[in-house]
């Protein structure tokens, strides 16, 4: 019962991780630059994401521009695009697989099949967490290095946006969920190896029955 509750808790964490991973991939505020200027009325907030750049004016106007050219983007943005999409795909596969393999569901067949499915789903969550953590760390490193560079003007410097923090938290949820699923299945398999099921043999009874049968044939 405790194992089923732990798997259900890990599944909830994985759901939050999947939704946060998708949101972080699509949000345009990976890095933010606030330019107040001489007047608060003309304040402009510039946001840059993986797929579009957006500008928000204090007057209420909001405009976005899609990044159509892939080759013109920096290498860290290209890597972040591919790894974040791969993270979303792996986490979605993990949700489908663990739904079948969880102990509280009636899908997946026997116990061994469900354990294998849970273990495979946990591996998917761990890989998704790694693929989601690498681009966020790399992107944050680029933002910090540009911010500390004295040769770059202040108007071109940015700070990490909400999408970066969402990516960090989602990657952590996926990693924790994957570890819980893998460890729960490993404990059950280890217990089966240490304490194998006892097999009852009755050699004397079988020999007596065979002996009796052969004597009757000879008579």
UniProtKB/TrEMBL annotation:
Membership in a protein family: Belongs to the claudin family.
Entry superkingdom: Eukaryota
GO molecular function, one term: structural molecule activity
Membrane topology: Multi-pass membrane protein
Transmembrane segments: 75-97, 118-141, 161-182
InterPro entries reported for this sequence: Claudin, Claudin_CS, PMP22/EMP/MP20/Claudin
Signal sequence region: 1-24
Subcellular location(s) per record: Cell junction, Tight junction; Cell membrane
A Gene Ontology cellular-component term: plasma membrane
One of the Pfam families matching this protein, by short name: PMP22_Claudin
Gene3D superfamilies in the record: 1.20.140.150
Alphabetical keyword list: Cell junction, Cell membrane, Membrane, Signal, Tight junction, Transmembrane, Transmembrane helix
Protein name: Claudin
Protein's job: Claudins function as major constituents of the tight junction complexes that regulate the permeability of epithelia.
